[in-house]
Amino acid sequence: MITSRSDIESVPGFMGWLVDEDAASREAAVEVVDVDGMGCVFSRSITEGQRAEISGFLRSRCAGPRRYALIGSFTMPLAEVSGAHIDAVCDAAHSVKLEETLHRSSLETEVVLTFGARHDAALSQHELNQHEDPDFPFYRWEILDGDGGCLLVQRFTHFIDTGTATSVQWHLDTALKALGSHEFSHAPRFRAKPTLVFHERAAAEARRAQLQAARLTTEILELAEVAAASERRAEIERWQKQWLSRTGHIHVEGVMRPGALSEAGFLGPTERLDAVLREDASTLSSLGITASQLADRLREIVGEAIRRDRSGSDLCYHTIANFRVRIHQYRGFQGCPWSCDDEPEWSSIDFSIENIRTGARLGGPGLIVHLIAEHGFFEGAGTPYRMDPRQAANVLELPGSR
After folding, report:
1. pLDDT per residue over 32-61, tens digit each?
2. Helices marked H in 223-290 — which ranges?
3. When comparing pLDDT for 140 and 71, which is higher?
4. Phi, psi of 219 (to 5 degrees)
5. What DSSP character marks residue 147?
6. How far is CA 400 from CA 138, 188, 286, 296, 394, in A?
7. What sign does the CA torsion over 258, 262, 267, 271 have?
8. Which residues, listed in sequence order, are joined to residue 157 by a DSSP beta bridge?
9. Are residues 97 and 161 in contact, defined by beta-carbon separation less than 8 angstroms?
10. Is residue 325 within 8 Å of 302, Cβ to Cβ?
């Protein structure tokens, strides 16, 4: 039974993971199993049962959870729309959003001008109305075919948590200014459509009345979504890189050079990975400690500082036992050069530790804790993020460091 990626890699003939690439370009590729262009290749035939199990496993990894969209619809003649109507729609959408909806919930408003068969008139008005407003970048005019013939639709979309009655009123005002002197085959219409996305259908059903109270008709649609393509690709790319690193197909030392995975690099331009690993292992041995012991101590101290930061503490420094610790958070994160699974909470920070008793200090990236624990790697002496194991043991007051 295929229950993990290691099960797939143990199938005889497994060659590696592919990501949107032509499997025929791989030498001796005989079998390909993929989901949306991402999967794995084999150098021999596999059974139908194996193919089904592998496909099922990949789908379980690639497919995102189902979503349920509560969609409201409000339509009335443009001339009859008032500020009270706009407030009611926005208030209802916001009240639902404040409950338990997902971040992709949106509010779309439209002004529909119906030109009938006069397509030239619609095109002329469309060209006249084209402009960009830096304060409202999410609105546009479109020419569509509808029940009344040619339609000119001004559509404005924003997220519910940032959209306000003021921005909807702005949309209404700009549309009224754009009407010109045209005669329309149907009176211009105003539409509002909030779309609120939930994890569970029951949650969407429970919020229906809040939209209906604002005179919106409602429907609930099931969205059989998959995870974003970039996220799915990253998942299987990580598997691929891990396998390639483990089997020696990727030269880890090469990706550690400055300018590869990071601008600073993990090794200096001429440093050798095996030499750095041997020297640091020798230092640890002379101190009578292991890389795991040092990493565990770092994880204990820095981890507590991370937890305090997450709790909303406004202190610049955290006093933990005999140490003063500071965390600096970044927006992005640095991946492991061995392509191990990411720990974003740790790989997006730098930290500094001061031993209060001795005044000795130590600093480094959060990723270094993983690099030490899993690879015995303290980074190269030719890089700015190097952590000297002897200095680290001394600051942390580990046995043998005195």
Report:
1. 898 777 788 899 999 999 999 999 888 777
2. 229-246, 252-255, 273-287
3. 71
4. -150, 155
5. T
6. 63, 82, 8, 16, 9
7. negative
8. 108
9. yes
10. yes
Cα 394 to Cα 362: distance, rounded to the nearest angstrom: 9
Question: How far apart are alpha carbons 291 and 373 in whole angstroms?
Answer: 6
Convert the pLDDT of each residue in 187-199 to its tens digit.
788 888 888 888 8
β-sheet with 349-355: strand ranges across: 318-320, 323-329, 349-355, 361-365
45-83 exposure pattern, b = at least 16 Cβ within 10 A, e = fewer: ebeeebbebbeebbeebbeeeebbbbbbebeeebeebee
CA angle 335, 341, 346 (to 5 degrees): 60
β-strand partners of 221: 69
**Start-to-end CA span in the chain (Å):** 53
pLDDT of residue 400: 62
Residue 164: helix, strand or coil by DSSP? coil
Structure tokens, 169:
């009123």
pLDDT tens readout for residues 58-103? 877 766 666 788 999 988 888 888 888 888 888 888 888 766 665 5
In whole angstroms, what is the distance from residue 62 CA to residue 56 CA?
Answer: 10
Give the single-character DSSP code of 1: -
Q: What is the pLDDT of residue 356?
A: 94
**Would you state the structure tokens that stand for residue 298, as one six-digit string?**
């770092």
Contacts of 180 (CB under 8 A, 6+ apart): 125, 128
pLDDT top residue among 255 and 361: 361
pTM over 0.85: no
Q: Which residues pair with 329 in a beta bridge?
A: 349
Residue 280: CA count within 13 A, CB half-sphere: 27
Placement of tokens 């596999």 in the chain: 46
- 227 bridge partner residues: none
Classify strands 139-146 and 323-329 as parallel, antiparallel or unpaired: unpaired
Which residues lie closer than 8 Å to 124 by C-beta, 6 or more apart? none
Nearest to 387 by CA among 400, 401, 368: 368
| Structure token digits, residue 201 | 């259908």
Write down how long the chain is: 402
